[in-house]
Amino acid sequence: MFEQREYSSSLEKSYQLLIKQLEALIEDEPDPIANLSNSAALLNQFLERINWVGFYLSKQDQLVLGPFQGLPACVRIEIGKGVCGTAVATEQTQLVADVHQFPGHIACDARSQSEIVIPLFKKNRVIGVLDIDSPEKNRFSQMDQNYLEQFCQVLMKYIPEQ
């Protein structure tokens, strides 16, 4: 039990540092694509046991692939379809332990086993999502969700209204 608490405390400190690094990295850059690109790269460097991290942006009632790190991905996703489209439709983070159990999952990378998708809000409107895939089932925890949502909130302070 002590080991678990120690790991948890260490992970929390790492996430807190990650969020500070994000802010330092993007605070002086006004370009949204540059900031999304560096954010994806930062998460790819920080997160272990993932195979894809990136953004989909809302455009004309669908999600369109944005900056990412990983293998080529699906370019367009309909709102309400798959994990990403569901996150937009429900305006809620989707924490999926096993993507093969998610109704309508869109398999862009057959290696993906679990996924977390966080809606990006600007003025109470979803403008896109952060999507992270892992080749392991049950990769993402409630702690990951909490800190990744904070990461997205900080990021959105530096992304102008579309």
TrEMBL record:
Domain of life: Bacteria
Domain GAF intervals: 52-153
Pfam families in the record: GAF_2 (PF13185)
Family indicated by similarity: Belongs to the free Met sulfoxide reductase family.
Alphabetized PANTHER family for the sequence: FREE METHIONINE-R-SULFOXIDE REDUCTASE, GAF/PUTATIVE CYTOSKELETAL PROTEIN
Protein name: GAF domain-containing protein
Organism: Amphibacillus indicireducens
